[in-house]
Amino acid sequence: MNLFKDAGHLLRFAGLFVLAFIIFLVVRGYVVPKSFGQYGHYRGNAITEMAARPVKFAGHQTCETCHSDIAGTKGQGKHAHVNCEACHGPLAKHADDPSSVTPVKPDTAALCARCHTASAAKPKGFPQVDPADHSSGAPCETCHQPHSPAIGGTETAPAPGGTK
Amino acid sequence: MKLSRRHFLVLAPAAAIAWKSVLAGEPDQAPNYKLSEHWWGMLIDIPKCIGCGNCVRACQAENDVPDGYFRTWVERYHVEDEDMTNPQVISPDGGKEGFPVAKEDAGKYFFVPKMCNHCADSPCTQVCPVGATFVTPDGVVLVDQKYCLGCAYCVQACPYGCRYIHPDKKVADKCTLCYHRITKGLTTACCENCPTGARQLIDLKDPKDPIHEFLKTHSVQVLKPQMATGAKAYYNGLDGAVR
């Protein structure tokens, strides 16, 4: 008995299925990124692409390589743990090209008040003042040098136009 | 050589599979950074937070977060003595410009910075239909924006409300734990700019990380532990009123 007798129409049909499967595999090979499934059900290269983005905050370690004098002053004072860019803003571009990108000196009136305005919501041990009442309108840096804020701190006011 | 139809049918799938394995090639690796050596998280120390909003501004600057959207934000809780279960929560513009001055009155106030919890068993990654969001081998939940369709299932799935659809890109966007910074040895933008150390990047696989000692000696919890998300934003001194 021949099982395949009169089975020609079935074999042609099976051939079509096999052909469709091959086309599927080929198309899949093209459209699925090669790193898909490298770590799981996602594109592995997405991780490296994300990691490759440039930074905007250089980080205090970078600042300190040039501004070691300020870092030293700051390290002695109450603001030792406040990092440079917390006040000065994102400056990775300045770190990359110090001469053409120069930071703007922050306005202490706004900057100090941001943290030190008194509020019942702040931790009790945190130094807080009512800015309007505290200095009668005088700028904070009249008495407090931001890098060493205790009155009589070691820092002197930076020279106008100075880069340090 | 004449290829019979039979041989073609046998060889073609084999060739397709072989070709695919050639395409897969060697995985790309960032120099000096091994995915398997890290397991990232964040410590948020509530008693240290002063609600200045530096973290929110830093995050927006570092990551080009569009106005009105937040990868991290700060909430201010006001819990009144007689109404412990109904805290009043405000977060004006995500706390970006700080908070209105609170007067000393009944009850207590405190700030709660919030962000993606970078869950180990993340509900958001489980619902993605196309494999566009995932937990990396070093424990960071990321979105592959080239793959994302913008269906927003993940936005709904996140129990912490940490995702949004980017208004211009029309794809899911969220905290990356500053993946481009932490893989270069820097800390995140929010941690770098927190003036009081209320936020600390932690590496749970690093035996030298002070977090291990900290966890032994402090009452630390995560948000919504009942959801079993494996959240890795650890909150120190978190009040029970926080949702």
Q: Give the averaged pLDDT of chain A, no decimals.
A: 88
Q: Which runs of chain A of at least 5 residues are low in confidence (pLDDT < 50)?
A: 157-164
Count of DSSP-assigned helices of chain B? 7
Helix content of chain A: 40-55%
Please write out the topology.
The complex is a heterodimer of chains A (about 160) and B (about 240).
Chain A: H1 8-31, H2 45-51, H3 60-66, H4 68-76, H5 84-88, H6 92-96, H7 108-116, H8 131-134
Helix pairs in contact in A: 3-4
Chain B: H1 5-24, E1 40-45, H2 54-63, E2 72-80, E3 83-90, E4 108-115, H3 123-126, E5 133-135, E6 141-143, H4 153-157, E7 164-165, E8 172-173, H5 179-182, H6 189-193, E9 199-203, H7 211-217, E10 220-221, E11 233-236
Describe this structure in words.
The complex is a heterodimer of chains A (164) and B (243). Chain A is mainly alpha-helical. Helices cover 43% and strands 0% of the residues of chain A. Chain A contains eight helices and no strands. Chain A has helices at 8-31, 45-51, 60-66, 68-76, 84-88, 92-96, 108-116, 131-134. Chain A is elongated and about 105 Å long. The model of chain B is unreliable at 24-29 (pLDDT under 50). Chain B has seven helices and eleven strands. Helix content of chain B is 23%, strand content 21%. In chain B, the strands form four sheets. In chain B, strands 9-1-11-10 form a four-stranded mixed sheet, with no helix packed on it. A three-stranded antiparallel sheet of chain B has the order 3-2-4. Chain B is of the alpha+beta class. Chain B has helices at residues 5-24, 54-63, 123-126, 153-157, 179-182, 189-193, 211-217; strands at 40-45, 72-80, 83-90, 108-115, 133-135, 141-143, 164-165, 172-173, 199-203, 220-221, 233-236. Chain B is elongated, with a radius of gyration of 22 Å. Chains A and B meet through helix 1 and helix 2 of A and helix 1, helix 2, strand 4, strand 5 and helix 5 of B.
